[in-house]
Design a protein that fits this description.
heterodimer, A: 112 residues, mainly beta, seven-stranded mixed β-sheet, four-stranded antiparallel β-sheet, B: 114 residues, globular
């Protein structure tokens, strides 16, 4: 158990819908990262927050957005969902910007 | 552009054999270096990391990695592979100078033959 929690574990929704994925970092970790993992794209870095502020952006679509709240939990919002958004979404946390990341178990999103 | 390359997409070894997974990075300075492992259906778990100092680092589960500055490499090794080591392995770098970035390689999937 990494100490990072993600909810829900599984999510099935229809195209065009909007979903919110939630992540609680390890106690004491200030940095949160979001990743998308699919068979064809591999592990793709989406976005990173540090102590509530966005610090790095990767291959995140405009239909996706995220935020980190004062209690340091983070949410990833995915809207206007397409079939191609079906993937495993991981959250990770680290104590600071440079250190190792601890990954949550992931949320498996299926868009039908 | 900065990048991390894992040239082997798939590797198959027999149980008990030695293992080396390759990782090369492209970056002007020495980054922080990591190896992660992902078992099927699981999140990634850190195996080991290199920040500075001794270039041979020991990790969990009997893994070690050696940083070679001249080759911009950080290869992962294990002297004797166990069937439970079958998983996907990711090399990652944290670029600490200028714009912050954390970059993962594309992964190497390890299959272990009994």
């Amino acid at each position: 158990d990494s100490g990072v929690t993600q909810t829900p574990k599984h999510l099935i929704t229809a195209t065009g819908q909007r979903v919110t994925l939630r992540c609680s970092p390890r106690s004491g970790d200030l940095s949160v990262y979001w990743y998308q993992q699919s068979l064809d794209q591999g592990l793709q870095f989406l976005i990173q927050y540090y102590n509530g502020e966005e610090r790095a952006k990767g291959n995140i679509l405009e239909r996706f957005s995220a935020q980190q709240f004062p209690d340091l939990h983070s949410e990833l919002n995915l809207s206007s969902l397409e079939l191609g958004d079906s993937a495993l979404y991981f959250c990770a946390s680290s104590v600071d910007l440079w250190n190792e990341q601890y990954f949550g178990p992931g949320t498996r999103l299926t868009v039908t | 552009a900065q990048s991390v390359t894992q040239p082997d997409i798939h590797i198959t070894v027999s149980e008990g054999a030695s293992l080396e997974l390759r990782c090369n990075y492209s970056y002007g300075a020495t980054p922080y270096l990591f190896w992660y492992v992902q078992s099927p259906g699981q999140g990634l778990q850190l195996l080991l990391k290199y920040f500075s100092g001794d270039t041979l680092v020991q990790g969990i589960k009997g893994f070690e990695a050696e940083f070679k500055r001249s080759q911009s490499s950080f290869n992962l090794r294990k002297p004797s592979v166990h069937w439970s080591d079958a998983a996907e392995y990711f090399c990652a770098v944290a670029l600490t100078s200028g714009t912050y970035k954390y970059i993962f390689g594309t992964g190497t999937r390890l299959k272990v033959l009994a």
